[in-house]
Specification:
Blueprint: E1 3-5, E2 15-18, H1 22-33, E3 38-41, E4 53-56, E5 61-64, E6 69-70, H2 76-84, E7 89-91, E8 97-100, E9 109-112, E10 122-124, H3 129-137, E11 144-145, E12 161-166, E13 170-176, H4 210-220, E14 224-229, E15 235-242
Parallel strand pairs: 2-3, 3-11
Antiparallel strand pairs: 1-12, 4-5, 6-10, 7-10, 8-9, 12-13, 13-15, 14-15
Bound molecules: flavin-adenine dinucleotide.
Length: about 240
Amino acid sequence: MTTPVPLPVAQWADVAIVGAGLCGLALARVLTARGLRVQVLEARSRLGGRVLTAHCEATDQHLDLGPTWYWPETEPRIVALLAELDLSSFNQHDPGDALWLTDPSRAPERHLHAGGVHAGARRIQGGAARLVEALASALPPDTVRLDAEVKSLRDRGSCIEISLQTSDEQAEFSIRDHGAGAPDYALPQIFDRFYSLPRPATGRKSTGLGLALVREVARLHGGEASFENHPEGGGLARIRLPKH
Ligand SMILES: Cc1cc2nc3c(=O)[nH]c(=O)nc-3n(C[C@H](O)[C@H](O)[C@H](O)COP(=O)(O)OP(=O)(O)OC[C@H]3O[C@@H](n4cnc5c(N)ncnc54)[C@H](O)[C@@H]3O)c2cc1C
């Protein structure tokens, strides 16, 4: 009877995105549409990052406290995104004078801009947060994790899974990678002394002693070492050692 000792080897996402601001959510939407499993990790307890819209109960107005405007001429992607998400927009009110506070110790100056001050800017109906909400609601459930600050990232290259199974009689370590595996012709000789294959990265051969020593040590302890190609790709090495 073997007792599996679970180790965290499951892949929980194809792509992890740090930050549920406008960029993170828009990217998650595109990747999800391509069939990838995406996790968005957001440090704050709300979506949107710098996008923040407040609702005024008294006037029933939505006030953008962060990003407010977009310019259709120079931001065609935002125009396309709003259309895809069926969000409406309106022209920023422009006519009239503008007050410019150039010196805090003096009263603001009144300027009249013939062509308007916002240069054709538009705003999203209901505030910029509507865009964030629409992007987030188009994602599969549990795609975004709030209160999840990413504190460190480690590049593990092609990941290696190590597991240990024990029974009353023996312990078995299995080590699997996700590389190319070994060519079938090499499998019968892979533990032979001085037998080696060119390394994929450098093309150089190694001494051919490593695996021979591993098997020798395993056998000296009354155990065995083996290697096979995993049916789903990569190599799978096993070392079995007796407990007594
Ligand atoms: C006051 C103000 C007014 C603006 N006005 C306009 C405007 O009118 N028009 C316009 O186009 N742009 C405007 N901008 C710029 C606009 O806000 C940004 O370009 C845009 O919101 C950036 O989106 P983002 O997703 O790249 O980044 P952010 O909105 O900054 O989102 C990044 C997210 O990542 C999260 N995060 C960061 N580190 C971690 C971590 N380690 N782990 C987990 N999560 C993390 C943050 O909490 C945040 O939610 C304005 C910005 C401000 C501040």
